[in-house]
Amino acid sequence: MRSGWGKLIGGAFALASILAVSAYPAVAQEVSALYKQHCLKCHGPEGKGDGEQLKKVKGKAVDWTNKEEMGKLTDEYLLDIILKGGGGVGKSKIMPSYKAKLKEEEAKALAAFVRSVAK
Question: In terms of Cα–Cα distance, which of 119, 22, 106 is closest to 65?
């Protein structure tokens, strides 16, 4: 379990990441490219978990636009599932690990993007 300082620092990082993604077009463009390359095929164009690849295996992903569902997931969890994959966090093994494919900063930017999609 993270201490109060750890949560504060993690929250501050998430906020800074979201602001960076929205305030700097180059960062937003990079995150968009990462999303298209690694996430779109399963999570869909709007993050609703309705991507074509996921439909083929009859899997189900969290609808990132659902604020209530996303509120149940911590920033740490989002980063963990990106880096460790579903199997690494006790969820479906359909979600692959991206630890070998993404730098940690890229994974954090994607996690911040995922968080920002909730309405």
Answer: 119
CB-based burial label for 89 (10 Å; 0-12, 13-18, 19+): middle
Sign of CA dihedral 6, 8, 10, 16: negative
Angle subtended by helix axes 75-88 and 104-117, to nearest 10: 110
Nearest in space to 77 (alpha carbons), one of 8, 3, 14: 14
pLDDT digits (tens, 9 = 90+) for 86-109: 999 999 899 999 999 999 989 999
Per-domain residue ranges of the chain = 4-117
Residue-level pLDDT at 22: 52
Model pLDDT for residues 19-68, shown as the tens digit of each residue? 445 555 666 788 889 999 999 999 999 999 999 998 888 777 889 999 99
CATH number of 4-117: 1.10.760.10
| Of the candidates 67, 62, 28, the residue with the CA atom closest to the CA atom of residue 44 | 62
Amino acid letter, 109: A
